[in-house]
């Protein structure tokens, strides 16, 4: 079975003549209460993405492959490029005056903004380098980010509560994927757009206009190495996806890269379903709600897809801690509905 065709619509509007900055300026004007701060924040995120792109593509020459030998707050080994990406985002954005606080998957507490710059009206949360286990094998990795409005008083520094907001309150979310080409994909809740980086110009240009996820796909993404830890319903779902049943469009093809940003980029464009269920090892789920699940749920829903933990809409989950985890089923509406039905058995 071959992959479904891409779901974006290339044409005059998707030719490389609309820059990311120009597009964000237009979108920012549509956000109630938005000022130039929104555009300025995205310009800084775009700059950080270009710097990270440069480091990623020269990692072997810069001596930033491999591990630092330390473990992050998640208990995971920290790759050298994890630190580079995290520091790049913090340094690029903390003194711009657009955010009051930040949160990173690599940092235990929320990141305060230096005095004098903390009156910004937004909050930025990010996974600086998703899929860092793929770095040393030259496979796709990426940066995931989300933007909230601050909740605290605008005259003071940001607080932890500014970061602990449900995904339904997001102002924008996006990701940058560093692969065969580097793409910047984002949404403000209505419409999803993709921009491809042209290193000869040093700019992202619109290449994927008005992305819509197909109602169904023909692939599923799940870490089958965890099969023995899954609940019976999850095991039954995977067996059904692999069954020889052409009348139901089965079997589906398995596609699993090991970097959520890469797996969901493909799912967004071609349809299908990505799942990381709870299991015996991680009964609360593995993926981080604020840094991975919520921003991608915001993007996928804006493209016509669905994201759930099996029972609840991801965007309706109220976080109570920065590094809260969640199960996740996300992708094409029909495929997510099928998976959730099995997961709840």
Structural account:
- There is one protein chain.
- With 345 residues, the chain is α+β, with helices and mostly antiparallel strands.
- It folds into two domains: 12-208, Fructose-1,6-Bisphosphatase, subunit A, domain 1 (Fructose-1,6-Bisphosphatase, Chain A, domain 1), CATH 3.30.540; 219-343, D-Maltodextrin-Binding Protein, domain 2.
- Helices cover 29% and strands 23% of the residues.
- The protein is built from nine helices and 17 strands.
- The protein has helices at residues 20-28, 36-57, 59-62, 80-93, 160-163, 232-241, 260-270, 289-302, 333-343; strands spanning 67-71, 77-79, 99-104, 111-112, 122-130, 141-149, 172-178, 182-187, 192-198, 203-208, 219-221, 253-254, 273-276, 287-288, 306-308, 325-326, 328-331.
- An eight-stranded mixed beta sheet has the order 4-3-5-6-7-8-9-10, sandwiched between helices. A five-stranded mixed beta sheet has the order 12-11-13-17-15, with helices on both faces. Strands 1-2 form a two-stranded antiparallel sheet.
- Helix 6 (232-241) links the parallel strand 11 (219-221) and strand 12 (253-254).
- Helix 2 (36-57) runs antiparallel to helix 4 and helix 6 (232-241) packs across helix 9 (333-343).
- The chain is globular.
- Residues 10-14 have low confidence and may be disordered.
């Amino acid at each position: 079975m071959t992959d479904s065709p891409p779901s974006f619509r290339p044409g005059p509007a998707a030719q490389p003549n609309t820059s990311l900055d120009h597009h964000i300026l237009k979108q920012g004007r549509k956000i109630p209460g938005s000022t130039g701060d929104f555009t300025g924040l995205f310009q800084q995120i775009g700059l950080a993405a270009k710097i990270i792109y440069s480091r990623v593509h020269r990692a072997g020459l810069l001596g930033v492959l491999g591990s630092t030998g330390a473990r992050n707050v998640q208990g995971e080994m920290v790759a050298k490029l994890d630190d580079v990406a995290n520091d790049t985002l913090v340094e690029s954005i903390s003194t711009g005056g657009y955010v009051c606080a930040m949160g990173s998957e690599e940092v235990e507490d929320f990141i305060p903004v230096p005095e004098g710059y903390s009156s910004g009206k937004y909050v930025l949360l990010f996974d600086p380098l998703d899929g860092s286990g793929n770095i040393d094998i030259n496979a796709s990795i990426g940066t995931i980010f989300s933007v909230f409005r601050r909740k605290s008083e605008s005259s003071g520094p940001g607080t932890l509560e500014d970061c602990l907001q449900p995904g339904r309150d997001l102002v924008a979310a996006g990701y940058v994927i560093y692969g065969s080409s580097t793409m910047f994909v984002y949404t403000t809740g209505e419409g999803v757009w993709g921009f491809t980086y042209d290193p000869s110009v040093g700019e992202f240009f619109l290449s994927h206009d008005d992305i819509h996820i197909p109602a169904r796909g023909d692939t599923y993404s799940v870490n089958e190495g965890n099969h023995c830890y899954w609940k019976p319903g999850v095991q039954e779902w995977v067996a059904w996806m692999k069954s020889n049943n052409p009348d139901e469009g089965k079997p589906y093809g398995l596609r699993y890269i090991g970097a959520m940003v890469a797996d969901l980029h493909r799912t967004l464009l071609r349809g299908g379903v990505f799942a990381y269920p709870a299991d015996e090892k991680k009964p609360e789920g593995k993926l981080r709600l604020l840094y991975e699940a919520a921003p991608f749920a915001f993007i996928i829903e804006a493209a016509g897809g669905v994201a759930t933990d099996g029972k609840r809409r991801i965007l309706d989950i109220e976080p109570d801690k920065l590094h809260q985890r969640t199960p996740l089923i996300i992708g094409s509406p029909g495929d997510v509905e099928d998976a959730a039905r099995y997961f709840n058995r």
